[in-house]
Design goal:
The complex is a heterotrimer of chains A (277), B (288) and C (266). Helix content of chain A is 76%, strand content 0%. Chain A has 277 residues and is mostly helical. In chain A, helix 5 packs across helix 13, helix 11 packs parallel to helix 12 and helix 11 runs antiparallel to helix 13. The longest helix of chain A is centred in the last third of the chain and has 37 residues. With 288 residues, chain B is mainly α. Chain B is 77% helix and 0% strand. Chain B is flat and about 75 Å long. Chain C folds into two domains: 150 residues, P-loop containing nucleotide triphosphate hydrolases (Rossmann fold); 60 residues, no CATH class. In chain C, 31% of the residues lie in helices and 23% in strands. Chain C contains eight helices and ten strands. In chain C, the strands form two sheets. A six-stranded mixed β-sheet of chain C has the order 6-7-8-3-9-10, sandwiched between helices. The relative contact order of chain C is 0.18. The chains are: A mainly alpha (277), B mainly alpha (288), C alpha/beta (266). At the A-B interface, helix 1, helix 3, helix 4, helix 7 and helix 8 of A face helix 3, helix 5, helix 6, helix 7 and helix 9 of B.
Chain lengths: 277, 288, 266
């Protein structure tokens, strides 16, 4: 391990000299980043083809690709994707709704904070997944308990993020609003919302990430549809290619929804200095 | 309240003045203010017990607090609680040590050595998109339902938050300090131990705290799906026999273990980040 | 938790109580100046020249102030002398030896004090460690008037105190050249005057060569033996200041005349 690199970061004026070639180098480095995963995939593919490895427990990329294509072509994949998306959509909406309302309430009112926050903080200590058996007992094994679990997972980051953002609003910019004699509504629209928004969107993103984790857990509890069902089905029937295919679809969907959230919220963040985000 | 009473004389002069000033308020009001945060949880508990005792709440839905306490005593007496907590804790800690160690090492390596970052970081960022719980079926195919499966899952789960925060922490160390260290002749090793690592420490600890949450969460799911021991197994088993009191006990056990882990990291933060204005405690170093 | 403390090495989390030391008389840290010579020095970043064929000889022990507008090449000049950057052409020599890389006998004070927040004050002063560092750091701290602050965390110090600690950190290694990169720029006026007096006293006691980068003409005239004005990478004025010391910060007619001459060249 060498420290030479850390030292060169401190080269002060040095980067300025090399600026013209920087973007080219950056693109080149991005390409270099694919060397390891693509190389590993190729080696594994070759090893299985040459008969050095069996590839039963970890199927080679070509077989995984064929499985995804097959599932997509036969139309088998889409109902599962739709079921999973519906669950996470519903759970996310509920969790975000509850988290936003309660977070804004406890952030704005000291009394509400004194009353509600200790309870919610105590509940937060329980990993949301631990509720699963109780949710099943209360709500049955079907959709309601799954959506509730996802909503519970989404709720806490959104609640904490909203509460934290409201509390952290800079007193000085509120004073600016007071100096200009803003109405209550205008104060919220012009001062509070813009101040809260960047943190709020970060909270939404971590909520979404947890939502994806919990949709997996929820579907493990037993589902006849959904990507989690594909996973369990693959395990019970000993089809690792189907498992890996489902894992990949999970990863792609997770990344896609996060990108979607970023794209949708991007227009609201124009003009912010997002270096800290 | 006894806490407050013990605390007051130990404080320094200015604080005592304010306490004295506040003492002018009626003692009942102070008592009420201290009690307010506990009002709702306590009220819920009392209502819960009342509803269960009066038969409004079926024990199938939610057992009375007294029933949970009884189940606790029972499980403590026959040793099953202790055994299961120990089994779960052992899995959690081994997984944390392995996954945390790997994540930390990768974070350091990629943080201080550009070629490693170029080669590895984008791979790790891609893998991060996979919800690690989704690999449970694959892991079961690989390892069966042995200990390795659970430990592997926990390790995978904790490795990413620790990696990301270690890497980020090292990259955001103040470059001015690194330059100063060069001018003042620090060797590469001294630069690492005295500037880079302590500078990254707050971020690493944030990663650790996050990883601890992931650790319990992973373990619960893994133990629910495939285990013959551990708290997750205990609760899932109890659910099948409709022993709701044991289910609630399991939930509480997870909560306490999670809280304990969280408090431990907070304590570590307070110890190691005493230099940080945001973490300063007590009067140490505040003579100015 | 004690494990963590060991894991992260010595001094990171705290520094144990320093042993009692009997302090030697002032200026006990040996010093003395070194000459600085720049011959035909050029420096360019890409296409943009910052220094053009610069020749400058600084005798040992001189207090030189370099004045100029932002972007005039002051900081670049200083980085070349410190060995942080290499010249595009020409030669920089300290004590007769060509500068290649960082210099052991050259120390630098930055605009911001750059104290390590997780080291106590004494640990900051002795940041390079080495044999007997506690003893030398204690002496240096006393030299800058902060003898009793060794166990504080940096965040409790005021801006002026932080720069004093930074000065002590430079003194520990008994440098023969001290480079000051606008270290007083961010301080309030009264603290700045205190720092001027302190810097002048320490320079007189130790006798090292000082290069002070500043855009404050009054500061340059109050402190320096000689003022050089850098304009667009070239020396626009080279002026000896032979006012008697100790000097007054304001209200001196001769100083005002010199300031006016320098301002005209900037």
């Amino acid at each position: 391990m060498s420290l030479a690199q850390v030292e060169t970061y401190a080269g002060g004026a040095q980067p300025r000299a090399t600026r013209p070639t920087r973007s080219g180098w950056r693109r080149w480095r991005l390409a270099l980043g694919f060397v390891v995963p693509v190389g590993l995939a190729l080696i594994w593919e070759a090893a299985v083809r040459a008969g050095f490895a069996e590839g039963r427990l970890m199927p080679p990329p070509s077989r995984i690709g064929a499985t995804i294509l097959g599932l997509a072509r036969s139309g088998e994949l889409w109902p599962h994707v739709a079921a999973t998306l519906q669950r996470i959509g519903l759970g996310f909406a509920l969790g975000v709704g509850a988290g936003t309302v309660l977070g804004a309430l406890t952030g704005a009112s000291g009394l509400a904070r004194a009353l509600l926050d200790p309870l919610l903080q105590a509940l937060r200590a329980i990993p949301s997944i631990a509720w699963v058996p109780l949710f099943i007992l209360w709500l049955g094994i079907f959709e309601a308990s799954k959506v509730t679990l996802i909503a519970a997972g989404v709720f806490f980051p959104v609640y904490l993020g909203t509460l934290g953002a409201v509390i952290a609003v800079d007193r000085r910019i509120i004073e600016v609003g007071e100096v200009f004699l803003f109405s209550r509504l205008k104060m919220v629209r012009r001062i509070l919302l813009p101040a809260i928004l960047p943190h709020y969107i970060t909270a939404l993103r971590s909520g979404l990430g947890l939502g994806w984790m919990f949709v997996v857990a929820a579907e493990f509890m037993g589902a006849s549809e959904g990507l989690g069902y594909l996973l369990l089905d693959g395990q019970q029937l000993g089809k690792p290619d189907q498992i890996v295919a489902a894992i990949l679809v999970f990863a792609v969907l997770g990344k896609a929804t996060d990108t979607l959230l970023l794209t949708l919220t991007h227009p609201f963040l124009k003009g912010y200095d997002l270096n800290h985000a | 309240m006894s806490d407050l009473a013990l605390d007051a004389p130990a404080r320094d002069a200015p604080t005592r003045i304010t306490t004295a000033a506040r003492a002018g308020r009626p003692p009942l009001a102070r008592f009420g203010a201290a009690l307010l945060p506990w009002a709702l949880p306590l009220g819920v508990l009392v209502l819960w017990q009342a509803a269960a005792s009066l038969g409004f709440l079926s024990s199938r839905v939610l057992p009375a607090p007294s029933a949970v306490a009884l189940a606790f005593w029972q499980a403590l007496k026959d040793g099953s609680l202790v055994t299961n907590v120990l089994v779960s804790t052992r899995r959690a800690l081994i997984g944390l040590a392995i996954g945390g160690g790997v994540g930390f090492a990768l974070g350091i390596l990629n943080g201080i050595w550009r070629p490693a970052e170029t080669a590895l970081d984008s791979t790790l960022q891609m893998l991060r998109n996979v919800p690690h719980l989704a690999i449970i079926p694959l892991v079961i195919l690989w390892f069966g339902i042995d200990e390795e499966a659970k430990i592997f899952l926990v390790a995978i789960g904790v490795a990413f938050p620790i990696y990301l925060n270690t890497f980020h922490g090292i990259r955001t160390v103040d470059r001015g300090l690194v330059e100063m260290a060069r001018v003042y002749g620090l060797s590469a090793a001294a630069l690492f131990w005295r500037i880079v690592l302590p500078g990254a420490l707050p971020s690493i600890l944030v990663g650790l705290r996050y990883a601890l949450g992931i650790m319990w969460l992973t373990l619960i799911v893994a133990e629910t799906i495939s285990a013959t021991s551990g708290i997750g197994y205990m609760t899932m088993n109890a659910r099948e026999f409709l022993q709701t009191d044991v289910v609630v006990l399991g939930v509480i056990a997870y909560a306490l273990l999670g809280k304990l882990a969280d408090s431990l990291t907070r304590a570590i933060e307070h110890r190691t980040l005493a230099w940080h204005p945001a973490y300063r405690t007590g009067t140490a170093g505040l003579a100015a | 938790m004690s494990a963590a403390r060991q894991e992260f090495g010595d001094g990171i989390i705290w520094i144990a109580d320093e042993p009692e030391v009997t302090l030697p008389p002032p200026a006990a840290l040996p010093s003395g100046g070194a000459t600085i010579a720049l011959n035909g020095v050029e420096k360019a970043f890409g296409e943009r020249p910052v220094l053009r064929r610069l020749d400058l000889d600084i005798p040992a022990g001189q207090f030189l102030a370099v004045v100029g507008r932002s972007g005039g090449g002051k900081t670049t000049l200083m980085r070349l002398i410190a060995g942080l950057d290499a010249p595009t052409a020409g030669r920089v020599a300290v004590g007769g030896e060509t500068v290649e890389g960082l210099q052991r006998n050259v120390r630098l004070l930055f605009q911001d004090a750059r104290l390590v927040p997780w080291q106590r004050v004494l640990g900051n002063v002795g940041i390079a460690r080495g044999p007997d560092w506690r003893h030398r750091a204690t002496i240096a701290l006393r030299d800058v008037g902060l003898a009793d602050r060794g166990r504080e965390w940096p965040f409790v110090l005021s801006g002026g105190q932080k720069q004093r600690v930074a000065l002590a950190r430079a003194l520990v290694s008994a440098p023969s050249v001290l480079l000051l990169d606008e270290p007083f720029g961010a301080l309030d006026a009264l603290t700045r005057i205190e720092m001027h007096q302190l810097t002048e006293r320490i320079w007189r006691e130790h006798g090292f060569t000082v290069v002070l980068i500043t855009h404050d003409v009054a500061e340059a005239v109050a402190l320096a033996d000689r003022v050089v004005v850098l304009r667009q990478g070239e020396i626009a004025l080279d002026l000896d200041i032979d006012l008697p010391r100790p000097r007054r910060e304001a209200g001196d007619a001769a100083a005002s005349a010199l300031q006016a001459r320098i301002l005209a060249a900037v």
